[in-house]
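Bench notes, afternoon.
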Amino acid sequence: MNRKKVLTLLISFGLLLTAALYAQDREDTLYYEVDARLLVKDRQQAADALTDWAEEQNGYFIYKTQEQISLRLPDKAVDSLRVYLDEISEELVEYSQNTHDLREQLLASRSALEAREEILAKNISYIDSSDVEGTLTLEKEIRRLMNEIDMYRGIIRKMENDRSYALVTVRLTFQNQTIPDSRPSRFDWINSVDFFDFLYNGRLSGRSGFGGPRMELPEGFALIDDSPEFLAISPEGVKLRVRKTDNYPKKSVGFWEEALFSDLSGRGYVTVGSGSDLNFGETPFSARTWGISNGNEDYLYITGLRLMKNKIEILEIAGPALYVRAYFPE
């Protein structure tokens, strides 16, 4: 088979590909992009649930990590996406949807494709009447044109996919915002309740004292001290502390709960799950769990309090989320 016949077959096959691209044409040329940020209890579980849901909608995921997931969803599924994100998250922190009309880009790419195919066809027709040197020059030009044609076909295919499937980017977080250093409470003991200070600066050695909190040591923890503060730690580094302060001004436990939890929320801490009671052998602590993104790892910070006679007893537990949940499940 001579060169002209080979090139003619290649061109014919290429024209069939182009015809197939045009056959996919429809009136809708809109492309949707969605960007969202979720506050979740468990980032891995949320990522897995989201990819499963996308596949149920006849979509697919491009990549997935514990921090971010990128999806392709059929346009018809976009309307139900926000509702689903609300269902699987503690809070839908951000949600934005942008729409792009690809009509002009499609027209421009198709015009460029048609022009190159016309030039290619003309060059093919010149081959029989060309000498050897001219034929070699034409073949070089034909290869260049075919490369450009392949490029434009790829661009058109991508736009065809874009207008069929929305691009969805979901970021998964344990923390709503950066926790500021400002501590506005007028009660010093509330100001001292701080995840980073407790985790990194809290003491790990005993000291003499008396009148410590009456506490049962949680299973799996080693006792560091029980007076004047109760301090314990697990083998995985989960820290637990209970300390006392005067109930001054004298208020109810409900008042101090509201004061402490409102202050932490105002500082940027975000609750994970509902409030609960923790019992260590005496009056239960009214506790709340907060999610913290610390470096590349998820942490939990449990804070709580109870009233014992004329004292407020303050509970703090902090450590990697996986281990904290193992010791203190909801």
